[in-house]
Structures are given as structure tokens and as C-alpha cells.
Write a structure and sequence with these properties.
Layout (H helix, E strand, L loop, with lengths): L4 H5 L10 E8 L10 E4 L5 E3 L5 E6 L3 E8 L6 E7 L4 E6 L26 E2 L2 H5 L8 H5 L24 E5 L2 E2 L22 E7 L13 E7 L7 E7 L2 E9 L3 E11 L1 H6 L5 E18 L5 E18 L7 E21 L3 E17 L3 E20 L2 E20 L2 E21 L4 E12 L4 E13 L4 E12 L3 H6 L6 E14 L2 E19 L2 E19 L6 E15 L15 E11 L4 E10 L3 E5 L4 E5 L3 E14 L2 E10 L10 E3 L11 E3 L7 E11 L7
Parallel strand pairs: 1-7, 9-12
Antiparallel strand pairs: 1-4, 2-3, 2-5, 5-6, 8-11, 9-10, 11-12, 13-14, 13-38, 14-15, 15-16, 16-17, 17-18, 18-19, 19-20, 20-21, 21-22, 22-23, 23-24, 24-25, 25-26, 26-27, 27-28, 28-29, 29-30, 30-31, 31-34, 32-33, 34-35, 35-38, 36-37
């Protein structure tokens, strides 16, 4: 389903064969050109972006009454009714600054650029889908931003020296249990949710809002779409499967249903694999999305999703690498989420949301393992303006997770079960002292009922505008997180782990360019560590570094590119390590280059992503010593190409992408035998990607219903 996002997202580009021209110029309150404003006919796929002079131009074959709309961050939306007949239109438009954005400084510590949420970088769905190497996955695109690490054998988000479990995902304000696909060791996972579901994808690398908790390092905050823009049927045929979806839009309601199936078997028969697959990874499922907006402005959202997946492969026996064994995995995943938002009177805004998740893994190998996690979550948030740029938010959230681990061997069955209830309260206020100085203060109170633990976490963010285009920001706060599932099952009374964040940055933005430099330090305490008497909160550590980000959308015609660099210095004593070590997922230096180029004559978009990360450590603990080594440096150059055309008046996209085009020989360390050889040594094999390259081909057809544009 995620590959189908290309259908919806590339449609903003201009297609040949149009007959009626709309053009004009957009300026701001100072009569300066507005660069990169989104100009479009509401309810259609026709539109363009303004250039360096604020000029836009596009053509359309639509006829009848429409609304021409313009949106640009920091300005009020502009719209005008027009009737399309046989004449072209030319406009001179002046945008009005949004009241909350009048030359305002924006808090950016722990963020990459200003966004609607005022807190973290927001990647549009189009940015995610068009990033080469991401393959339509939110996580793949975020890994090109500073602070994120490249851990090829895992695939999840590792941020600023934090393990993958320290990054939490939130949908419409609610924590999401198990946001990654299930997989076997050394086979990377992917995100479960398609980027087309979200109108905002916000990625915080630290110092984030008191509204979010249980994340030591990072928060990925996803806000779902409102009403679907139009009625649409979509069909996709891909080298790894296919999908079919239909969206129906009425005046105040929209419903979308979809079904998808992927199977890597045919593809893997053509491309050499480093793993001995018995049954290639395959997934089947579907989803339902319902939206309703009432006359009083309230909005109700409902999303239901179910997928089943599986795989089987012949792998090395971890006890003795000279032997092999078959490992099979079956997963069933169900997600149900709903939210309701409404303005109460003239001041308060209420948002209530709830979600249910059921995640079941069945693994068959020497033993049969049945692992299940269910989560029921609810949240209520109130917000109101206090006048003069001040804003108050407060709320309560509660969730209850259930863990079950069942191990069955021929001789016996072992069962572990545990409940994990958790409640949190938060209050937060934005203070606007002047156009140059803003601050955000917050308190989060968390109660872990299992251990009768109460934690109060203060948070503070401040930003000061140093010039017309630049500012500095600072953020600090306490962040806590409950232990991991295996630790909870073993030692339920473990306390929450803790990290303090200290972040400062300088950011400059002008005419479609952003330059940002950020320094940070995280201090860890109470990390879960294994001791001779079991799990204890005796671990500690630190992570510190420097991130640099530069993005330019205007210097090269029809191009958009960004460069990110991360320096990371981190050590921690946790889990099985008895002394501070550099974690095996941490690379000291990481560089990303992302480039995208639109070719109008060929109606094509091409993209390239290049990545380099210095070697990481790996470890093997024997009875008498710690074996330490280094991986090779991580290198990757990925490319993609998309061609847009029409088939009988309907949008058709042909898309091709290839990861690791040069075929770099990446490796992720060594897997050691758990039993020693006769001479006391330990056999090992190199951990490599499942395949040297990954090639994807897809054809996407979008069939728009006549009359959808009137909505």
C-alpha cells in the first residue's frame, strides 16, 4: 500500500495535454515575491509552485466553477472563485501573514526547520516518497536527516546514541505499540504505516513537548489526514505485489478502503540473495479510513488496519555455526484508532482519541515461541489561547499493555504474562514575550502502576531571534521510559529509565534555503542492566554531538537537495555490558546527500541519495572476555525515477528505484557461535544485507470520478 502513495503525491506535478492556462504572481506584505507557495485548483490535481520571482503558471482541461487556492507556511490561505470556460486567467495576489506568524521567532531546538507544529521538522508526504532509497517508507526518509543513524541490519530509527526502543511513534497524539513490521534477526524491518495517511510527519530528535512521553531519545509524531480531497480509485502493479483502493468523497464525509498483497518470492528468484529463503517475505491485508466533519466544525476520524505476514529461511544455528536450522515467522497485526476534535465555546479546543493494537508473532525453530502484545490507549487534550501569543495545553493519557510469551519445547511449556498500566498528566504553556523571544514551559507527571513509581519531568524551550532570517534556540528537560518487554516479563518491578536532554542550535532561513547547526548532550541514568542477581537499574551513559543540516530548494532550477552531517560521541553501561562502551548501533560520523530534479520536458522526477557512515563497533561476550571488532564503513548510493503521463485522461505513473546502485560490499559485523571450538576460539560469520541491491518497479493508475472537483 505504501508504494501507492506515489499516485496521490506526484499528482501535484503538471501534466502535458492541458488547454487552459492560469498564471500570475504572488507577493507578501512587503511586495516581495513569495517563493514556493502552493497554487492549485481545489479538488483537482492541477497546480504549481511559485518560482524565485513569485510567478506561477499551469494549465488545465477542467471546465466549470472552481476555487483557485494558495497556501504558504506563515500566511493566511488565499482563495478565489473562478469559472473556467475558454479564456486564460492571470492573477496578482498579495498574501496576508498569519496572526500567529507575524515575524515570530519559532522554537527549533530538537527540530530541523519551522513547521505547523512549531516544534519539529515536517516532511511532506511528497518528500518521503520521492527520497531515493526510502522506498516509500517514512523511516527511510527520516534516516537522511541529521541525528539519525544507519543500522542496515535492523531498519528501525536510532537517534543520537539512543537504541531503537528509545524512539516512540505517536499517531494523533497517541503512542503506537509495535510500529515496525515483524522480522527475523539481521533482516531489516519497515514502518507499518503509509505516509499518505498523514498530513503532518514531525520528527523530534530531542527536547520535545511535555505532551509526549515514554521516549528517552526521540518522538515521531504523525497527524492523520482530514477529509479526503476527492473521489478516487487507484490500482498499482509492482514487482513485489499489488494493491487496489477506492476513496469516496461526499460534502462532509469521506471513506477509503484498500487491500494490498506483497510477495518477494518472484523477485528473489531473479536477484541473488545472501540468505537461504525457504518462503520469501509476504504480506496481505487491508484498511478502512472514515472521516466526518459536521456543520459545527467538529471532526471525527476512524482508522482500522489488519495485516498478516510471514517468512521462512534456513539460517545458521546460533549454538554451533557449522549447523543450520529453519526459522519461520508468522505475524498478525491489528490497529484501530479513532479521534474526535471540537471547539468548545469561543476559547477551548478539545481532542479525544483512543486506539487498540494487537500484535502476535509465532516463531518456529528449535522451539515454538508465541509472543503477543496488546495495547489499549486513550487520551484527552484541552487547549486555549490566553491572548497576546500565549497558549495553554493540558491533558491526560492512559494506556494498558498486556505481554504474553509462550515457549513450547517437546518436554515442556513455559508461559510468562504481565500487565503494564501507565497514566500521565501534562500541562504546557507557550509564552510570547515579544516578536524576538518566545518560550515553552511544561510539566509531565507519569505514573507506572506496576512499580508504584511517580515521576515528574520538567521541560523548557526558549528561542530568540538574532536577525531577520536567523535565530537561536535552547531546550532542556527530563525524559523517562519504562523497561523493555523482556525486562518487564523477567523483573516487573524495574523502575523507569531516565535521560536529561540539553540542546542548543542556530538556524538561518531565507528564500527557500535553510542552514541549521545544533549541539546536544544526553545524560542517561537508571538504565536496565543485567547483574548476577537479575535486572537492576544500575546502568548509565551519555551521548553528545553536533548536527548540521542544509537544504536548498531554489538555487538550482527544478531542484531540491539537502545535506546532513552528524557527529556522535556516546558510551553507555547497560543490558549485558559491565562497563561503558560505544553501543554497537552508533557510528561516529554520518553524512547524507539527497538530490531531486524535476524534468518538465520528460514529465519525470529523478532522485539520488548518497550515504556514508564510519564503522561501528560489534561485541561478543565469552565466559572470560569481551570480543570487540568493527564493521566496514556503510556506503550507499540509491536512485529513483518516476514518469508521469495519462491513460485515457487518468493519471499514470511509472516508477523505478534501485538501492545501492554501485553494489558496495556493506557488512554489519560478525555473528559468533555461542559454543567455543576445541581450541577455545569462537567461530563467526559476516552479517551482510539480504541482497546487495534492491530493485523496485511499479505502475500506478489513478482513476478520478467525474464531478469530484466540486467537493
Amino acid at each position: 500500500m505504501r508504494y501507492f502513495t506515489l499516485l496521490l503525491l506526484f499528482s501535484c506535478f503538471h501534466l502535458n495535454g492541458q488547454s487552459l492556462k492560469l498564471s500570475g504572481r504572488v507577493i507578501d506584505e512587503n511586495n516581495e515575491p513569495v517563493i514556493g507557495a502552493n497554487v492549485f485548483l481545489t479538488g483537482t490535481y492541477d497546480g504549481a509552485s511559485t518560482d524565485l520571482e513569485g510567478v506561477f503558471s499551469f494549465t488545465t482541461t477542467e471546465k466549470g466553477a472552481f476555487i483557485l487556492s494558495i497556501s504558504y507556511l506563515g500566511y493566511e490561505n488565499w482563495s478565489q472563485d473562478i469559472v473556467l470556460e475558454n479564456e486564460s486567467f492571470e492573477f496578482d495576489i498579495k498574501l496576508t501573514p498569519a496572526t500567529s506568524e507575524l515575524d515570530a521567532v519559532v522554537i527549533t531546538a530538537g527540530a530541523f526547520e519551522a513547521s505547523d507544529s512549531k516544534k519539529s521538522v515536517t516532511l511532506r508526504p511528497l518528500d518521503i516518497v520521492t527520497t531515493a532509497g526510502a522506498n516509500g517508507d517514512v523511516l527511510g526518509a527520516l534516516q537522511t536527516l541529521p541525528g539519525a543513524q544507519r543500522v542496515g541490519e535492523d531498519g528501525r530509527l536510532f537517534v543520537r546514541g539512543g537504541a531503537a526502543y528509545e524512539t516512540r511513534t505517536f499517531i494523533d497524539g497517541l503512542y503506537v505499540a509495535q510500529p515496525y513490521t515483524s522480522t527475523t534477526p539481521n533482516v531489516p524491518s519497515r514502518g507499518r504505516f503509509s505516509p499518505v495517511l498523514f498530513k503532518g510527519t514531525t520528527f523530534s530528535t530531542g527536547g520535545y513537548s511535555a505532551e509526549y512521553g515514554q521516549a528517552l531519545s526521540s518522538a515521531l509524531v504523525l497527524e492523520t489526514q482530514d477529509l479526503a480531497p476527492a473521489t478516487l480509485t487507484a490500482i498499482s502493479l509492482m514487482s513485489v505485489g499489488g494493491s487496489l483502493s477506492h476513496t469516496q468523497r461526499w460534502e462532509q464525509t469521506s471513506v477509503a478502503v484498500s487491500a494490498d498483497y506483497t510477495n518477494l518470492g518472484p523477485y528473489m528468484n531473479l536477484v541473488p540473495q545472501n540468505l537461504q529463503w525457504q518462503k520469501a517475505p509476504h504480506t496481505a491485508g487491508g484498511q478502512l479510513i472514515f472521516r466526518h466533519k459536521s456543520d459545527n466544525g467538529s471532526l471525527w476520524k476512524l482508522q482500522a488496519q489488519h495485516h498478516q505476514s510471514g517468512m521462512s529461511l534456513q539460517t545458521l544455528n546460533p549454538q554451533q555455526l557449522s549447523d543450520t536450522l529453519e526459522v519461520s515467522l508468522k505475524n498478525a497485526y491489528t490497529y484501530l484508532g479513532t479521534s474526535f476534535q471540537k471547539t468548545l465555546g469561543a476559547a477551548w479546543h478539545l481532542q479525544v482519541s483512543a486506539a487498540y493494537t494487537d500484535h502476535l508473532d509465532k516463531t518456529a525453530t528449535i522451539a515454538d515461541i508465541r509472543s503477543r502484545e496488546t495495547a489499549l490507549l486513550a487520551k484527552a487534550r484541552l487547549s486555549r489561547s490566553l491572548g497576546q501569543g500565549h497558549l495553554l495545553r493540558l491533558g491526560i493519557s492512559h494506556w494498558r499493555e498486556s505481554f504474553e510469551e509462550k515457549l513450547q519445547v517437546p518436554e515442556a511449556t513455559f508461559l510468562q504474562e504481565q500487565q503494564e498500566p501507565y497514566t500521565a498528566f501534562f500541562t504546557e504553556t507557550d509564552w510570547t514575550f515579544s516578536k524576538k523571544l518566545v518560550a515553552r514551559t511544561g510539566i509531565r507527571t507519569e505514573m507506572r502502576h506496576m512499580s508504584d513509581e511517580l515521576v515528574i519531568s520538567p521541560r523548557l524551550s526558549v528561542a530568540y531571534k538574532t536577525g531577520a532570517k536567523s535565530q537561536v534556540s535552547f531546550a532542556t528537560g527530563r525524559f523517562t521510559q519504562r523497561p523493555q518487554k523482556a525486562q518487564i516479563l523477567s523483573t516487573p518491578m524495574l523502575e523507569m529509565e531516565e535521560a536529561w536532554h540539553f540542546i542548543t542550535n542556530w538556524q538561518w532561513q531565507k528564500d527557500g534555503r535553510t542552514l541549521r547547526v545544533e549541539a546536544y548532550r544526553k545524560s542517561y541514568d537508571d538504565l536496565a542492566s543485567i547483574t548476577p542477581t537479575g535486572w537492576k537499574n544500575t546502568g548509565d551513559g551519555y551521548a553528545q554531538g553536533l548536527d548540521v543540516f542544509f537544504r536548498d530548494k531554489v538555487s538550482i532550477a527544478n531542484s531540491d537537495f539537502w545535506v546532513s552531517y552528524s557527529y556522535l560521541d556516546t558510551e553507555r553501561r547497560y543490558e549485558r555490558f559491565t562497563e561503558r562502551i560505544q553501543p554497537p548501533f552508533a557510528a561516529k560520523h554520518t553524512v547524507n546527500l539527497v538530490y531531486k530534479y524535476w524534468i518538465p520536458r520528460w514529465q519525470s522526477l529523478v532522485g539520488m541519495t548518497a550515504v556514508y557512515a564510519t564503522p561501528r563497533n560489534y561485541y561478543h561476550q565469552t565466559e572470560t572476555e569481551m570480543i570487540q571488532g568493527k564493521t566496514t564503513a556503510y556506503r550507499d548510493v540509491s536512485m529513483n525515477w518516476s514518469y508521469l503521463t495519462q491513460l485515457k485522461g487518468h493519471l499514470l505513473i511509472i516508477h523505478c528505484s534501485v538501492n545501492n546502485l554501485p553494489g558496495f560490499e556493506n557488512n554489519y559485523g560478525q555473528q559468533f557461535s555461542q559454543q567455543s571450538e576445541a581450541d577455545g576460539s569462537y567461530a563467526s560469520v559476516t552479517i551482510r544485507p539480504p541482497a546487495k541491491r534492491f530493485l523496485f518497479l511499479g505502475v500506478f493508475l489513478s482513476i478520478g470520478k467525474e464531478g469530484a472537483s466540486q467537493f
